[in-house]
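Quick start: what a row looks like.
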Amino acid sequence: MAHILIVEDEEHIAQMIEATLSLGGYSCEICADGAQAVERIFAGGYDLVLLDVMLPGLDGFSVMERVSSQGTPVIFLSAMQQVADKVRGLHLGAEDYIAKPFEALELLARVEVALRRRGKGREVLEYRGIQQDLSSHTVTLNGKPVALSPKEFELLRVFLQNQDLALSRDKLLSLVWGYDFAGETRTVDIHVQRLRQKLGLSGKLVTLPRIGYRLEH
């Protein structure tokens, strides 16, 4: 399980980020002060740092300048959306720069990408007897292989990585089939039905009327 440091001085935002990452299967610590963040990062033990730019005292850019030599990957989170700010953050060595406000799905996706770059991404996802191996592209249910199509495999990955989150049909289409997919949302319904049948998810992969679906923990 990857361990992530959240450096954010607004408590409600920090708690929201922590809750989102916990649903994604990550362990987290929260720090609200730039100087303290520097100390914690140098102490080690973190696989990733989510770093707000506008912090009291030592701002996020200054924190990054001091810890870049330590090697822990950093993703900036900031309400500062100017291109110059994003470029500055990336030039300082950040893995990514996410503008606030952001969706939970976007945060989880970018965190996973950053961790994979460093060899820390999760290769096996587990849920109630289901094991999905992302490296070998295989799925088992209670130890027995289950054959899934490529799109069924990707759809399962999205649900397993976003448990307890409401996912609209349009969002699922964009994540699994791509933004330029010309088909209808009925495509999602058909693939969800197949996952329910093949993996026994009828009671857990629930339909949200007029919204989409949610995989309940």
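That is the whole record. The two ends are 17 Å apart (CA to CA). The chain has two domains: 3-117, 124-215.
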